[in-house]
Design brief:
Shape: globular
Order of helices and strands: HHHHHHHHHH
Radius of gyration: 27 Å
Number of helices: 10
Helix content: over 70%
Oligomer: single chain
Structural class: mainly alpha
Strand content: under 5%
Number of strands: 0
């Protein structure tokens, strides 16, 4: 397939709103939220009753893992939808997520290591700039170059690497394939990808504003009608809804609070699904008809070189150790 022109790529982002039609993704994301709250909540309550910091940490960790693997399973469903492939069952999506989502953790870790390595190199150069006389002259060149390098790295990290690492993993790429592909996207399509992500943010924000505007209007009208018909009076206020207080009508208030909370949680799922499918579409557009073999080969060659030098250094250290032992005897 030929690469999509930018205008067509912009138009394809509108298809991200079709994510609300994927009932499996909606159900799985809802189950993920519920599971994370239940697991984290139960362990946190036990930790509070037992005054256990370890149990509280375990509750937070378990809630994070449920959210992490569940949301990645949702991403896998939406990526297959964006690719036009047959959908998976909820169980299969979760199993695939459990098998592959660790790649995303490895990629994020490697990306931060790259940024950290660049900052260390720049810090060393800045220390060199402390040399009298020559230092200020060198700093005049180092300062703008460092600003450009760090600026590009941060933009590449937060606008390309992190948002598109998920879709790359969901499409089945390995850790090093993800790194190689994202690296090529940063070098060739950084600006267009950032523009598409800004547009996706606007679409998602507008959708969220529209949904919560409709629900806010409906909740306000229903609250007013309920206050008159059910005789709740002043109990139908935000504090009562939040706390469940309110005399004889407290049962209705609690019911309204639970129902309203579930309604708002369900509404929050929709923008999340649209954004997730949107980044999948951006990734597919950025990788359409792109040959990554050269980038992946270059990365493999670089890793092989680093591994070879590490082996040589290990052998040299071993030889020095043997010489030292022989001289000691």
């Amino acid at each position: 397939q030929k690469p999509l022109p930018f205008s067509s790529a912009v138009g394809s982002l509108i298809e991200a709103t079709d994510a609300i039609k994927n009932f499996r993704a909606i159900a799985l994301l809802a189950l993920t939220f519920i599971g994370a709250v239940l697991v984290g909540g139960v362990l946190t309550m036990l930790a509070g009753s037992m005054s256990s910091v370890v149990l509280a940490f375990l509750g937070g960790l378990m809630a994070f893992l449920v959210m992490f693997y569940g949301s990645n399973a949702v991403g896998i469903l939406l990526m297959r939808d964006a690719q036009g492939q047959p959908g998976l069952s909820l169980v299969d999506a979760v199993l695939v997520s459990l098998y592959t989502s660790h790649r995303l953790i490895a990629v994020v870790f490697l990306e931060f290591l790259i940024v950290l390595a660049a900052m260390i190199v720049i810090a060393i150069i800045l220390f060199v700039c402390k040399i009298p006389v020559l230092g200020p002259v060198l700093y005049a060149v180092v300062f703008p170059l460092s600003a450009i390098v760090l600026g590009v790295l941060v933009f590449a990290l937060f606008y390309v690497m992190l948002p598109l690492a998920g879709p790359a993993a969901w499409s089945g790429a390995s850790v090093f394939q993800i790194i190689a592909r994202l690296n090529l996207i940063v070098r060739t399509k950084l600006v267009s990808v950032i523009l598409l992500e800004v547009l996706l943010f606007l679409i998602t924000s507008f959708t969220a504003l529209l949904i919560f505007g409709v629900l806010g209007t409906g909740v306000s009208l229903t609250t007013g009608m309920s206050a008159g018909i059910l005789g709740l009076g002043d109990q139908m206020n935000m504090y009562a809804l939040a706390s469940g207080l309110g005399g004889s009508g407290s049962g209705y208030i609690i019911a309204a609070g639970l129902g309203g909370g579930l309604l708002m949680a369900a509404a929050a799922v929709v923008p999340g699904l649209i954004f997730t499918k949107g980044v999948c579409i951006i990734y597919l557009n950025a990788t359409r008809n792109v040959d990554f073999s050269a980038s992946e080969a270059s990365l493999n060659d670089g890793l092989a070189t680093v591994k070879k030098k590490a082996e040589e250094a290990r052998e040299r250290a071993r030889a020095l150790a043997e010489q030292a032992a022989a001289s000691a005897t």
